[in-house]
């Protein structure tokens, strides 16, 4: 891990900046890949023994986020990082609220335009999509599980990993916006949803913008959580009807 000392933007004196080198970054991305492969094969194996597909899908989703959290914790311990090195730095709510809400509205406009374009050209989402499976047959229990997974766990863990670690490392080598595009592409690709790649890529770019602007993960976590909670509640309402 490389270390540099720079003058902090708030005038509080020098601050140690940490970043991963290419070996570290390759190991992190390799770890993400291993997590997906192991959990995918493990889930398929369990389906043969215990044919409760929906329960196993929830188990897979929660285990994915917890495995990401473990990967982040191992990185922190091995490299002797502080949470602030990964972007967990405080920022006043009043300074970010309007920006978060404005960017959230912008992403929804883009999502609606994209959905209309898909509809115009005759594209429809696949009926067997994993997200529709998790959101189907809505009950209070599944709604709570979806909100916990999508609205709490995913924003905290994924922002730390994709913005705090991956983007925060790549920008030292590729420059800000190239790193933003690469990290957003990785973020969107790992959702394994082809028709949703573009809106998630745009969301990834917006989340990087917030992280870079405020030098903190709190704004990007807030937008990520708001986006996921709203999408979960809207989808649940539509499926109930």
UniProtKB/TrEMBL annotation:
<dbReference type="InterPro" id="IPR052710">
    <property type="entry name" value="CAAX_protease"/>
</dbReference>
<feature type="transmembrane region" description="Helical">
    <location>
        <begin position="164"/>
        <end position="186"/>
    </location>
</feature>
<feature type="transmembrane region" description="Helical">
    <location>
        <begin position="223"/>
        <end position="240"/>
    </location>
</feature>
<feature type="transmembrane region" description="Helical">
    <location>
        <begin position="192"/>
        <end position="211"/>
    </location>
</feature>
<dbReference type="GO" id="GO:0004175">
    <property type="term" value="F:endopeptidase activity"/>
</dbReference>
<dbReference type="InterPro" id="IPR003675">
    <property type="entry name" value="Rce1/LyrA-like_dom"/>
</dbReference>
<keyword id="KW-1133">Transmembrane helix</keyword>
<keyword id="KW-0645">Protease</keyword>
<feature type="transmembrane region" description="Helical">
    <location>
        <begin position="55"/>
        <end position="75"/>
    </location>
</feature>
<keyword id="KW-0378">Hydrolase</keyword>
<feature type="transmembrane region" description="Helical">
    <location>
        <begin position="25"/>
        <end position="49"/>
    </location>
</feature>
<protein>
    <submittedName>
        <fullName>Putative metal-dependent membrane protease</fullName>
    </submittedName>
</protein>
<feature type="domain" description="CAAX prenyl protease 2/Lysostaphin resistance protein A-like">
    <location>
        <begin position="142"/>
        <end position="229"/>
    </location>
</feature>
<feature type="transmembrane region" description="Helical">
    <location>
        <begin position="134"/>
        <end position="157"/>
    </location>
</feature>
<keyword id="KW-0812">Transmembrane</keyword>
<dbReference type="Pfam" id="PF02517">
    <property type="entry name" value="Rce1-like"/>
</dbReference>
<feature type="transmembrane region" description="Helical">
    <location>
        <begin position="96"/>
        <end position="122"/>
    </location>
</feature>
<keyword id="KW-0472">Membrane</keyword>
<dbReference type="GO" id="GO:0006508">
    <property type="term" value="P:proteolysis"/>
</dbReference>
<dbReference type="GO" id="GO:0080120">
    <property type="term" value="P:CAAX-box protein maturation"/>
</dbReference>
